[in-house]
Amino acid sequence: MSFKTDIQIAREANKKPINEIGAKLGISSDDLLPYGHDKAKVSQSFINSVQDRADGKLILVTAINPTPAGEGKTTTTVGLGDGLNLIGKNAAVCIREASLGPNFGMKGGAAGGGYAQVVPMEEMNLHFTGDFHAITSAHNLLSAMIDNHIYWGNELEIDTRRVVWRRVVDMNDRALRQITASLGGVSNGFPREAGFDITVASEVMAILCLSKNLSDLQERLGNMIVAYRRDRSPVFARDIKADGAMTVLLKDAMQPNLVQTLENNPAFVHGGPFANIAHGCNSVIATTTALKLADYVVTEAGFGADLGAEKFMNIKCRKAGLAPSCVVIVATVRAMKMNGGVKKADLGTENVEAVKKGCPNLGRHIENVKSFGVPVVVAINHFVTDTDAEVQAVKEYVEAHGSEAILSRHWEKGGEGARDLATRVAQIADADMANFAPIYPDDMGLFEKINTVAKRIYRADEVLADQKIRTQLKDWEAQGYGNLPVCMAKTQYSFTTDPERRGAPTGFSVPVREVRLSAGAGFIVVICGEIMTMPGLPRVPSAENIKLNADGDVEGLF
Fold first, then answer.
1. Torsion angle, alpha carbons of 413, 552, 101, 248, to 10
2. Is 202 helix (H, G, I), strand (E, B) or coil?
3. Can you tell me the distance from the alpha carbon of 548 to that of 558, in angstroms, rounded to the nearest whole number?
4. Of residues 305, 317, 329, 326, the one with CA closest to residue 453
5. Which residues have CB under 8 Å from 446's CB, separation 6+?
6. With CB atoms counted within 10 Å of each terminal CB, which end of the chain scores lower, N or C?
7. What is the pLDDT of residue 174?
8. Pick from 422, 430, 424: which is nearest to 87 by CA?
9. How far apart are the first and last CA of the chain?
10. β-pairing, 40-42 with 32-34?
């Protein structure tokens, strides 16, 4: 049986003018800043005007550890939002924007799939409303001002060996990971080692996604540490006097983007922090605005629950005062079989025993999410090769873990396919069963916070960190940063730092390679294993198949 591609389905969408989508949430056309006919930014003045309203129910969609078999977290987020609207609820979706790097690399698009998509699909996966370009420009403006300050006399006495602010570009380009800058003679400045990260790994991206308004944004930007002096004292972005101009560049990017699902329901798509290096959630301003306008807000967090949901709870919710009413964990029968040892080529063959063998990965995520005091529902994202016996095996396993699993066919049928899931999620959210709390307090020591996540979420035996790292953490505590949460950076494919160890492994350690202070964003980045802040392209990048056809339409995005 052949199916239409995501881009074919998206191109056939019966989109409504964006002012009609805004009207569903009570946003007048005067409060929308349109980018064409099908996307718009919501004005800051409107956002300010609704702050006295009560909040709706927040629903988080997360997943098991990603596998090559596919899980469909964004697809489920969109399908659930459509399903809630289908059963008569006033619901909105909040997801992240897509990075050009993964789009042209190996991931492809990030707008859902099948009949559970957000549109316009091509624009969302390309330049969209220019937010990422603004973030890239603001970040690199600061880079230029740092080097310019050093060139014109270095009044701040920056140690050029200790400039920690790297440049960014929104592309996977391994050649830029480590570079030598300012070569070519006296007029080009003082040569030094430097490098690039991908834009989604920028602290500016994390700050935009955690800021409540423009004044909060500028203060956070000013708090970023960009370099150190010879006496190891920090130099902040405000010392370079870059925070004001950076805020000007980010003024429009700070306003949330409103688009629509295939079923013409409202979706906020805003921000895109790297789920490994940063907190991997859409912007606080988009989520909190949606909560003022809708009775139910469905959002997602990057990668599996060990990364995305943990950071959503311990960082985003802590910083923004949010509390989810229900969490949906996405799983597939195919992924369970892959966790159970089945090769990708054999996933289409029924194998109930492999499903059962792979379910402990799902079980650990259920236990972890419940430890935050939030009720859990498992969404089995349906594939046509799933058999009744395999689906039943997952349901029985989840029931034994005190939750319930619901088969959802949103990829194939849109909101109608998610009707059962939406009905149950709404019931749980309305019952106010959640008693949410982060798993560690603000005043716990930084290394103890790392240890808590590693042991309680990953189930590691220990954290391995040399004395230099432990001393650095103690120094930051002495400088007043000890109350910050920790942002764990590790592979998304496993509870461990080894991407090949699937399932629910035990008997392992978590090696900490490096720690970084994101003083503006307000967290400590803990780099574990071999995580990189600048990805590379695969042997055959998606870009090779992306082109314009004879009609001028984009082909190759998926």
1. -100
2. coil
3. 14
4. 305
5. 473, 476, 477, 481, 482, 484, 486, 524
6. N
7. 94
8. 422
9. 19
10. antiparallel
Of 459, 437, 458, 441, residue with least CA distance to 449: 441
Report the 10 Å Cβ neighbour count for 12: 10
- Token readout for 245 is 């101009």
131-151 vs 243-250: helix crossing angle, rounded to 10: 160
- Residue 53 DSSP class: S
Give catalytic residues, as residue numbers. Answer: 73, 75, 96, 107, 275, 303, 383, 411
* Amino acid present at 388: D
Task: Give the residue ranges of DSSP H helices in 214-351.
Answer: 214-222, 237-240, 243-250, 284-293, 310-311, 318-320, 333-339
Give the burial class of 470: count Cβ atoms within 10 A of its Cβ; 0-12 exposed, 13-18 middle, 19 or more buried: middle
> 402 phi and psi, to 5 degrees?
75, 20
In the Cβ-directed half-sphere of 336, how many Cα atoms lie within 13 Å?
35
Residue with tokens 């959640």: 434
Tokens 């909560």 sit at which residue?
291
Contact call for residues 254 and 260 (beta carbons, < 8 A): no
Q: Which two tokens stand for residue 477?
A: 């505590």
Residue recorded with tokens 């970023």: 224
Cα three-residue angle 292-88-331, rounded to 5 degrees: 85
For the chain, count helices (H), then strands (E). 21, 25
Strands, DSSP E only, in 288-331?
A: 296-300, 326-331
C-beta of residue 273 within 8 angstroms of C-beta of residue 283: no
d(CA 136, CA 318): 27
3-state class (DSSP) for residue 118: strand
Per-residue pLDDT of the chain (558 residues; tens, 9 = 90+): 567 888 888 889 999 999 999 999 999 999 999 999 999 999 999 999 999 999 999 999 999 998 887 789 999 999 999 999 999 999 999 999 999 988 888 765 678 889 999 999 889 889 999 999 999 999 999 999 999 999 999 999 999 999 999 999 999 999 999 999 999 999 999 999 999 999 999 999 999 999 999 999 999 999 999 999 999 999 999 999 999 999 999 999 999 999 999 999 999 999 999 888 899 999 999 999 999 999 999 999 989 999 999 999 999 999 999 999 999 999 999 999 999 999 988 998 999 999 999 999 999 999 999 999 999 999 999 998 899 999 999 999 999 999 999 999 999 999 999 999 999 999 999 999 999 999 999 999 999 999 999 999 999 999 999 999 999 999 999 999 999 999 999 999 999 999 999 999 999 999 999 999 999 999 999 999 888 888 899 899 989 988 898 988 888 876
Residue the block writes with tokens 């329901």 = 265
Q: Are strands 404-408 and 376-381 parallel, antiparallel or unpaired?
A: parallel
* Angle subtended at Cα 74 by Cα 95 and Cα 208, rounded to the nearest 5 degrees: 25
Predicted TM-score (pTM) of the model is: 0.95
